[in-house]
Specification:
globular, Four Helix Bundle (Hemerythrin (Met), subunit A), Alpha-Beta Plaits, 3 domains, alpha+beta, seven-stranded mixed sheet, Formiminotransferase-cyclodeaminase, Chain B, domain 1, four-stranded antiparallel sheet, 20 helices, single chain
Length: 571
């Protein structure tokens, strides 16, 4: 598995585009990283940059970003709504794939040491990279913000993990950077129908895990209660793994609850949204929408969309794009500005559009384009791709009947039953769409193998091996189509028997398309298997294909009998 980490530095500049661009270019030009998002905030005077790559590339890009920020940002004149302690305020490394949080923590410590050694910028290590337990909390590292650094740096208990014992000239200009490692967090602001920072703060204290100080008597003006060790007694909030404050944003003319969800498993985004709505309503306020700062994992939006669909007792067996659209509508993600998932979802941003377009060349075509491409003089796409697409259409029809049944008036008690069936259909549909393009890619592989040189004995042997492997793969792909398409029959049978009676003919057409897909793909298995030198493999492939063909013929006949009996019971 490829080792990938994400870095989301927060730079203390959100207004001067020239300075922001200089920092981002320093990161981008370091090589080996992909900048996914640049999100400046005028009121906070802060820019969040998100980039990904290998651990080595990301740490180098992060270092160069810190260096450039130290050159263009002067903390002595910086003011903004967000807490901050340095030109590069926070610098977290986040595991994405093939690497652990502990490994990211080690990288963060090495990076912090290098930043101080080469740039003379003091660094605190926080969260998983913390050297001291209390510094796992970023707020402890950033306490007092930039203005408190002279006092903190002179105190051995509060001094940076890497830095001088006094407020040097470089620290005075660039402040201190907080370098850490953490799991993925969601930075989100909940928009309120008020301009009151105090009321926004009250809601934030209601919900954040830390909660608020306990007071004697009056909960606002009463004396703060201390425990036996002199520590403030806190009344915990309702959301685990959440930090929050309230603030007023001049740019929008509203107050917000600004939240970091640091444990998205304990508190998914939609749970946080609903709880902030509840807490706001209890104080006479309304949440009018949600603002995502930076990027968000796709699963958070999928979970939210499914949650709100299920609350409405509607089917979740719909396209991924529609589930995300439900999340956007339900939480008002486009309240302040348009929300484009392609620009905000980390998985979408990591996709290479050129590679994806090549991989999905056929399924991205219109119906007309696909038909004309098939009709052209090129041998691909051919019967294999058409078979996979027929199977996708068969699964789509079964899914459609399930969704219509889920929403049928008078069948409200059965919505979940049909929703579950629609989900199964969507899974089959996605697999068969992918196989539509994979079949053509398999054919291209055979052509590439035949194009290999065969002059020397060694070249001829390599060419023969490549042809055999490509031919086997070209037989395996339509066999996968047959297996996937056959999984649609139970769905189509159930829809014919129990689904919306007005759509029973659609279940029948789905069965016809599925049978055609399986028989068509079977022909491709057989013709490719015939070219294999290894006859044992060939017999195994064709044997399984023949069994699936027999099953398809039987399933189609039985489903059509059900359909015809319902259409014309007297026949």
């Amino acid at each position: 598995m490829e080792r990938i980490i994400e870095c989301v530095p927060n730079f203390s500049e959100g207004r001067d585009r020239e300075k922001i661009d200089a920092i981002v270019e320093a990161i981008r030009n370091s090589g080996g990283v992909k900048v996914l998002d640049v999100d400046p905030g005028e009121a906070t005077n802060r820019t969040v940059v998100t980039f990904v790559g290998s651990p080595e590339a990301v740490t180098e890009a992060a270092f160069r970003g810190v260096k450039k920020a130290g050159e263009v940002i002067d903390m002595r004149t910086h003011h903004g709504a967000h807490p901050r302690s340095g030109a590069t305020d926070v610098l977290p490394l986040i595991p994405v794939s093939g690497i652990t949080l502990e490994e990211c923590a080690a990288l963060a410590r090495e990076l912090a040491e290098r930043i101080y050694r080469e740039l003379e910028i003091p660094c605190y290590c926080y969260e998983a990279a913390a050297y001291k337990p209390e510094r796992k909390n970023l707020a402890v590292c950033r306490a007092g913000e930039y203005e408190a650094l002279p006092e903190k740096m002179a105190d051995p208990c509060k001094a940076p993990d890497f830095g001088p014992g006094h407020f040097t000239g470089k620290a005075a200009v660039s402040g201190a950077t907080n370098v850490g490692a953490r799991n993925f967090l969601i930075a989100v602001n909940f928009n309120l129908n008020t301009t009151s920072t105090r009321r926004a703060n009250a809601v934030a204290f209601d919900v954040r895990e830390k909660g608020r100080p306990k007071r004697e008597g009056n909960p606002i003006t009463g004396k703060i209660v201390k425990d036996g060790n002199g520590r403030t007694v806190m009344i915990p909030g309702t959301l685990k793994g959440c930090k929050a404050i309230g603030w007023y944003i001049d740019e929008y003319g509203i107050a917000q609850v600004s939240m970091n969800i640091t444990d998205i498993d304990a508190t998914p985004l939609h749970v946080a949204f609903d709880e902030v709505c509840r807490a706001a309503a209890a104080r006479g306020l309304r949440v009018t929408g949600t603002e995502i700062v930076g990027l968000i994992p796709k699963r958070s939006l999928i979970e939210a969309g499914r949650y709100y669909l299920e609350k409405q007792q509607r089917s979740v067996g719909i396209a991924e794009e529609e589930i995300i659209r439900m999340a956007v509508m339900s939480m008002g993600l486009d309240d302040l500005k348009p929300f484009n998932p392609k620009e905000k979802v980390i998985e979408y941003m990591m996709e290479d559009e050129k590679e994806l377009a090549a991989k999905e060349r056929l399924v991205r075509m219109t119906c007309r384009e696909f038909a004309h491409e098939t009709a052209s003089e090129s041998p691909a796409p051919g019967g294999g791709s058409v078979s996979a697409y027929m199977g996708a259409l068969g699964a789509a029809l079964g899914t459609m009947v399930a969704n219509l049944s889920s929403h049928k008036p008078g069948w409200d008690s059965r919505w979940k039953e049909f929703s579950d069936e629609a989900e199964k259909g969507q899974s089959i549909l996605r697999e068969l769409l992918a196989l539509t393009d994979e079949d053509t890619a398999a054919f291209d592989g055979i052509m590439a193998a035949f194009g290999l040189p065969k002059g020397t004995e060694e070249e001829a042997a390599k060419r023969a091996e490549a042809i055999e492997n490509a031919t086997e793969y070209a037989a395996q792909v339509p066999l996968k189509t047959m297996r996937a398409a056959s999984r649609a029959f139970p769905l189509l049978r159930k829809m014919a028997l129990e689904g919306n009676p007005n759509s029973v003919s659609d279940a029948g057409v789905g069965a016809l398309a599925t049978r055609g897909a399986i028989l068509g793909a079977g022909l491709n298995v057989k013709i490719n298997a015939a070219g294999l030198k290894d006859r044992a493999k060939a017999d195994k492939l064709t044997g399984e294909a023949s069994g699936l063909i027999r099953l398809a013929i039987k399933e189609e006949e039985e489903i059509l009998a059900i359909v015809n009996a319902k259409i014309d019971p007297q026949a």
